[in-house]
Amino acid sequence: MAERFGVRRAASYELSYIMVTERMPGYDAFVGRWDETRHVQALNDERYAYFIAESDGDLVGFSIVQDWGAPERVTCVKRIAVSNPSNRVGRRLLTGVVDSIFRETDTFRVWLGVFPENQRAQRAYAAVGFIAEGVARGNLYFGGEYRDELIMALLRTEWNAARYHH
């Protein structure tokens, strides 16, 4: 039987899953984490959108989008994390999130930042269509230190071209 996989907007009662997932072992070096108060603020802020990935009824990942529907038409994938980093769940989650952004808003540019040493994530993002643009030096204060961030982006024109050529 084929797997049922889907990406949908997250519900507030799924916050515990989100917080547990962003705190998984090994994620402290690559995935940001917020306390419950910060998540509740974002969940109640129309400039943020939370997404959940489900596979056969199980929660398998989440993503937080910042600047949802922004008048500047630029949206940021702020965070993406999966419960089990295999089976290309991250790629499928990101594809669903990007599709939602472009279908539900007039966003022209979707961007995200990734640590330059996180090759696995970069490959996943590139597979979805994101293009590396450059390194913003010392752009993030993360884990008590300033870290570089590779900026990757996908434009609506590129998304449209990829959709209509498959």
Q: What does this protein look like?
A:
The chain has 166 residues and is an alpha+beta fold. It is 31% helix and 36% strand. The protein has a seven-stranded mixed beta sheet, with helices on both faces. Helix 3 (89-104) packs across helix 4 (119-128). It is globular.
Descriptive labels:
alpha+beta; seven-stranded mixed sheet; 7 strands; 31% helix; 5 helices; 166 residues; Aminopeptidase; single chain
The number of domains:
1
Taking the alpha carbons of the first and last residues, their distance comes to: 25 Å
Strand content: 35-45%
Overall number of strands = 7
CATH architectural name: 3-Layer(aba) Sandwich
CATH topology grouping:
Aminopeptidase
Major β-sheet profile: 7 strands, mixed
User: What structural class is derived from the secondary structure elements?
Assistant: alpha+beta
Tell me roughly what share of residues is in helical segments: 25-40%
The fourth-level CATH homologous superfamily is Gcn5-related N-acetyltransferase (GNAT)
Radius of gyration: 15 Å
Total number of helices: 5
Unreliable stretches (pLDDT < 50, length at least 5) are none
Helix-strand pattern, N to C? EHHEEEHEHEEH
CATH class: Alpha Beta
